[in-house]
Amino acid sequence: MTKYIVVSGGVISGIGKGVIASSTGTLLKTLGLRVTAIKIDPYLNIDAGLMSPLDHGEVFVLNDGGEVDLDLGNYERFLDVELSRINNITT
C-alpha cells in the first residue's frame, strides 16, 4: 500500500523543509522502503526557470531539462535517485 509523508511549513522560506524531507526519505530508504520525492510549488503554470532569481532564488536543472526548485537537487543527492519534471508540481 502506498503511503505519503507531507512536509509543510507554509510560505516561510529557508527553514529547512527540503532538508527535513530529504533526510526523512533517506532514513526510510535505509529501512528498505522504496522512496521518491515530489515538490509542490504554489506558482500558477510557471516553472522556477522562468521566474526572476530575486523572486525565487536558484534553480536546479534536472536531467530531462526541467528547471525546478533547488530542493529537488537535494532530494536527488540525499535519496540517490534521478528525478524528472513529473516530480515537480505547480498549481
UniProtKB/TrEMBL annotation:
Gene3D superfamilies: P-loop containing nucleotide triphosphate hydrolases (3.40.50.300)
Record-linked Pfam families: CTP_synth_N (PF06418)
Cited InterPro entries: CTP_synthase (IPR004468), CTP_synthase_N (IPR017456), P-loop_NTPase (IPR027417)
A Gene Ontology biological process term: CTP biosynthetic process
Domain CTP synthase N-terminal positions: 3-91
GO cellular component: cytoophidium; cytoplasm
Coiled coil (residue ranges): none
Example of a GO MF term: identical protein binding
Name under which the protein is recorded: CTP synthase ura7
